[in-house]
Specification:
The protein has 174 residues and is mainly α. Helix content is 59%, strand content 0%. The longest helix has 23 residues, at 139-161. The mean pLDDT is 84.
């Protein structure tokens, strides 16, 4: 550094830059965590349910509060995030709007047909359609994988969690 150049105020020895963004994120995380815990306290607990609907919001809310507090402490101790290098991002190329529109169309189709066709079929179409929109050319394999995942998730929700997803046209078969 030459004699005429000066260091910026943020890098002077003994003087630290206050990262308002990190403190703001920490405060937001703590507020969302507290809101989640308070809101979960109002959920009704069934007498036959051993876990109840409050457990997961309590865990998520407490986790948000803890992580927010740890972020605030790390920020106060001078920890600063490193800027993203963007190694996998080509900023000179434009967005692929055709792919985005294909994905939106597949998602809207799923939303529009899930009650009629049921989750097993609509979920399979969602998977296969998303794979097609992203460039896959193995349609039969994508449909089979989509069916396996959709039926598996349908049973996981229905049997494992006790949450009935709509069977649609497969009512009585699943």
């Amino acid at each position: 550094m030459s004699v005429h150049e000066t260091q910026p105020a943020a890098t002077e020895p003994g003087r630290r830059r206050i990262d308002v963004g990190q403190y703001g994120l920490a405060a937001f995380m703590i507020l969302v965590g507290i809101y989640t815990v308070v809101d979960a306290a109002g959920l009704e607990v069934g007498f036959a349910d051993p876990v109840g609907p409050r457990v997961f919001p309590y865990v998520i809310g407490a986790g948000l509060v803890v992580v927010g507090a740890l972020l605030a402490v790390a920020t106060a101790r001078g920890s600063q995030p490193e800027p993203e290098e963007g190694e996998d991002v080509d900023l000179s190329s434009s967005a692929d709007w055709v792919t985005v529109l294909k994905l939106v169309a597949v998602l809207l189709f799923t939303v529009a047909t899930v009650n009629l066709l049921g989750w097993a079929i609509s979920g399979a179409v969602l998977f296969a359609g998303a794979a097609w929109a992203l460039g896959s050319r193995t349609f039969v394999r994508d449909v089979i994988v989509g069916l396996v995942l959709a039926i598996g998730s349908w049973y996981a929700f229905y049997v494992g969690l006790g949450i009935p997803l709509t069977p649609g046209v497969l009512d009585g078969i699943l």
